[in-house]
Design a protein that fits this description.
Blueprint lengths: L1 H38 L4 H17 L6 H50 L28 H10 L4 E7 L4 H14 L4 E5 L2 H9 L4 E3 L9 H4 L2 H17 L3 E5 L3 E3 L13 E5 L4 H5 L1 E6 L8 E6 L3 E8 L3 H16 L4 H10 L13 E3 L5 E3 H7 L4 H4 L5 E3 L6 H12 L16
Parallel strand pairs: 1-2, 1-4, 2-3, 6-10, 11-12
Antiparallel strand pairs: 4-9, 5-12, 6-9, 7-8
Helix pairs in contact: 5-14, 8-10, 10-11
Bound molecules: 2-acetamido-2-deoxy-beta-D-glucopyranose (2 copies).
Membrane topology: Single-pass type II membrane protein
Pfam family, one: Nucleotid_trans
Organism: Oldenlandia corymbosa var. corymbosa
Amino acid sequence: MIGGRSRRDGPMMRSIGHRSRIAVAIAVGVFFGCVFAFLYPHGLFVSIPRVHSRTSIRQLNSSSCESSQGIHMLKLEFVAASEENAKLKNQVRELTEKLRLAEQGEDNARKQVLVLGKQQKAGPFGTVKSLRTNPTVIPDKSVNPRLAKILKKLALRQELIVALANSNVKDMLEVWFSSIKKVGIPNYLVVALDEEIANFCRQNNVPVYERDADEGIDSIGRTGGNHAVSGLKFHILREFLQLGYSVLLSDVDIVYLQNPFDHLHRDSDIESMTDGHDNQTAYGYDDVFDEPSMGWARYAHTMRMWVYNSGFFFIRPTIPSIELLDRVAGRLSRVKAWDQAVFNEELFFPSHPGYDGLHASRRTLDFYLFMNSKVLFKTVRKDAKLRKLKPVIVHLNYHPDKLERMKAVVEYYVNGKHNALEPFPLGSE
Ligand SMILES: *[C@@H]1O[C@H](CO)[C@@H](O)[C@H](O)[C@H]1NC(C)=O
Ligand SMILES: *[C@@H]1O[C@H](CO)[C@@H](O)[C@H](O)[C@H]1NC(C)=O
C-alpha cells in the first residue's frame, strides 16, 4: 500500500534533508567565525568591558590628560585598602581560632593524652593501625564492696556472663542456666530482681546476686516488663565495669551450646550479636536509594546495617563502654524509648552540630555462631550444610513463643532430635 510505503521511506528522506541542513549551518558558522576573528583579533567580549571602564574613570576626573595618573593613584589606594582588609581578616580569623581552641582545646587535649599516651610518628605505608582496644579502667571496689567480693570468687579472667531476671521469666531462666551448666561454664551470674527468683537460683545452685533496696534500685525490677528491666540493666552493668570486670550481658531467652568465652576477640569496647540474617545485613552494605527526579544524580548511596542486639553483647570495662551505658541509661530515664534503638543510636551516630557522638570501638559477632532465631528458622534449618554447624548460642529474639522454641533448640542441638525444629512456623502466627 502506498500509505505504508511512504511511511517507511519517510524517516530516511527526512534524515538526509536534516543532515545537509546541519552541514550548511556549520559552514555558515565557520565563515562568520573567520570574519569576526579578522575584525576583532583580541576577541569580542574582552574589548567591551575595557571601553566601558575607561569611560567611567574619565568621568571621575574632568582632565583627560591626567587620567592615566588618576588610574595609577586609584590602583595604589585600592591595593592599600585590600592589604588593610586582608590584615583585619587575618586578625579576626586568628582570634576566632584562638577562641575555639580555648573552648574545646584543653579538655580534648587532656582526653587525647589519656587515651593515646605519648605522641608518635606514623610508620611506613600499610603498617599503621589506629587504637581500637581501649585501656581498661582502674577497678574501684568502693563502688560496691559486696558485689566486688562475689565477682572475685566467680569471674574467670575478670570476665563473666550476667543476666537480669524477675519471676516473669522463671521458666526461660531454667532452660537458660541448664544449658550453661551442661556446657560447663562456671563464670555466670543471675542478678535477681525479686525474692522468688533469688530463692529459685539458690535452690538450683545458680550463682545469684540480689539487689538490696539500699543499693538504689527502685520498684521497676520487681514489677516491670521487659523494657523497664532493659533500662535498669544499663544502670546495674555500670557497677560491674567500674569494678574492673568484662561482662557478657545475656537475655534469658538464650540457649548456650558452646562456651562463648572461647569465641570472643576482646579487641573492642563492644562485641555484639547482630539482628542481621546474612553477610550484608549483619556486617553492613551500600544501600542505594533511587530518586529518579534527580536525573543524573538519581542514585544516593547509604550505609546500612541491621542493629546490634542489646540482649547479648560483650562489654569491656573501658571509659567509652561506661560512657555508652551512662548515655543509654540517661536517655531511657528521660524519654520513653526502646532500649535497643537507643543503644544502637548512641553506638553508631557520629558527632554532628549540637551532638557529640560516642567513640566506642565495635565488633559484630559471627551471625552463624551467635545465632538469632530468624537465621535458625529461616535459613539454617532448611540448609543441609548449615544444619550440621553447631552455634555457640541461639537467641530466640525474633519469636514470641520463646520457651517452646528454646526447648526445641535444646532437643535439636543437644539431644540430637533431627526434626525438633520442623513444627514451628517461620515467624509468629
Ligand atoms: C582630578 O585631577 C585633579 C588635577 O587636575 C586632581 O587634583 C584631582 O584629585 C583629580 N580627581 C580625581 C578624582 O582623581
Ligand atoms: C559471607 O562471608 C563469608 C566470610 O567472608 C564468606 O565465606 C561467605 O562465602 C559469604 N557468603 C555469601 C553468601 O556471600
